[in-house]
Amino acid sequence: MTQPLDAFTYRNGVLHAGEVPVTEIADAVGTPTFVYSAEAIRSSYRRIERAFSPLGAHLHYAVKASSNLHILRLLHEQGAGMDVVSGGELERAWLAGTPMQEIVFAGVGKTEAEQRAALDGRFSPLLDDAERLGGANIEGRGPVGLFNVESESELEVLARVAAELGVIARACLRVNPDVDAKTHEYTTTGLEENKFGVAWQRVPEIFAAFRDVPSIKLVGMHVHIGSPVREIEPYESAVKVLLHLIDTLEGAGHEVSVLDLGGGWPMSYTDGESPEIEAFAEALVPLLEERAGNGLQIVLEPGRSILANSGVLLTRVQHVKEGREKTFVICDAGMHTLIRPAFYRAFHFAWPVRVDARHVPPAAAERVDLPDLRPCDIVGPICETGDFLARGRDLPPVKRGDLIAVFSAGAYGMSMSSNYNDHGRSAEVMVDGDRAVVINERQSLASLLETEMNPRVLTHG
Ligand SMILES: Cc1ncc(COP(=O)(O)O)c(C=O)c1O
């Protein structure tokens, strides 16, 4: 897949997104700002689609990776369905133009209210605002194409809610295959000890229990083993568990028409960190080809692999503090803007936006071999020692007012950001060729305070 520096390139010592110098973006909208490349999003999407085309796989973009409406619209235009994990993401997918049949609703803790809204538009929390927000015919929309259900309890509640509404909920059962995805412990989801899915051994029993429930149609299975997954073998193991289960279920008279393999597909935070998506497809296609040829619908839910290297975070240096052994480069972005380094100790390549010719980075790597670099920690303004974007990096000299780009920030950047320490959330800009468009204005302090303006007495006396 794309490498961190593919979509964002240095020209005459200045980082560009498409044809646009990112310095112009920062000057116009300020910092911190996420900048996305429309072309990179389109081409990453197409590449995954092409790799799995022998299976006719249907891609549902994992909205959690980056949920800006304009990004969703761009992907909808490419033909993507959407994978959502909350009522909020569901409404975004709908507002972006995704037909309900093209939405997969996953998530381990769906509430009844979320299930209702996913089954019948009259229960959408946006009902009163739909017209203003451009969500045509929200009231008349039908059920989502697929629920990915995580437990028997959820199935029971969904069956009751669907029955009350007089509709049938189409569902896949999320299977926990007990496979180690060999990624960060917080994003490993396919081990028995993780909260996700039902133990694979129990799948036949659950299919049997819900066979005759008229408001639920269990059409297949879902699996998502972690993210990002850098080895092919865990996917092969998971698929083998699912194929074994299909045989067992069909033997018991169930029809299995959908297999959703989830997300976690490869991407690289440093050059060449992960095998290419084509290598994953090469290993998986032979396992699934025959079944797909016989009508089994294969679904994938890529998020990071499309968005991560399609975005950078621009941050401005506020202060430079010389320590005895290293320099602290103190920026206006931090763990509130991009939490991945603090939360997962994730590596993001970070480099000044404007450099002289000898400091143009040759690759995104943990160690850069160029002259006159200084050991630095790139940190944020938040009052936490864990508030860093990059630690122990060798950087060219930087001074107050310089811009730094944090690469591979397009996925799980803005969507995991917060208002900690009362910072408004960042602006977002989409670049397409020579056109740069603000797709999300910086959040104002006034909007942050709005919900606190009118205290409501609940009890008194
Ligand atoms: C069920 C499910 N599908 C898809 C994804 C997307 O994963 P990725 O962004 O690595 O493709 C996730 C991520 O956590 C997930 O939990």
Main sheet specs: 9 strands, mixed
Hetero groups in this structure are: pyridoxal-5'-phosphate
Q: Structural class of the secondary structure composition?
A: alpha/beta
Q: Report mean pLDDT, rounded to a whole number.
A: 95
Strand content: 15-25%
What would you say this structure looks like, in words?
- The protein has 13 helices and 21 strands.
- It has helices spanning about 20-30, 40-50, 70-75, 85-95, 110-120, 130-135, 150-165, 205-210, 235-250, 275-295, 305, 340-345, 445-450, and strands spanning about 10, 15, 20, 35, 60, 80-85, 105, 145-150, 170-175, 200, 215-220, 260, 295-300, 310-320, 325-330, 350, 375-380, 390-395, 405, 425-430, 435-440.
- The longest helix has 19 residues, at about 235-250.
- The chain starts with 7 loop residues before the first strand and ends in a 12-residue tail after the last helix.
- The structure holds pyridoxal-5'-phosphate.
- Pyridoxal-5'-phosphate binds near residues 224, 303 and 304.
- Pyridoxal-5'-phosphate (PLP) binds next to helix 11.
Task: List strands and helices in order, with pairings.
Elements: E1 8-11, E2 14-17, E3 20-21, H1 22-29, E4 33-37, H2 38-51, E5 58-62, H3 69-77, E6 81-84, H4 87-95, E7 103-105, H5 112-119, H6 130-133, E8 146-149, H7 152-165, E9 169-176, E10 198-199, H8 203-210, E11 216-222, H9 233-251, E12 258-260, H10 277-293, E13 297-300, H11 304-307, E14 311-322, E15 327-331, H12 340-344, E16 350-352, E17 374-379, E18 388-395, E19 403-406, E20 427-432, E21 435-440, H13 445-449
Parallel strand pairs: 4-20, 5-6, 5-13, 6-7, 7-8, 8-9, 9-10, 9-11, 11-12, 12-13, 15-17
Antiparallel strand pairs: 1-2, 2-3, 4-14, 14-15, 14-19, 16-19, 17-18, 20-21
Bound molecules: pyridoxal-5'-phosphate.
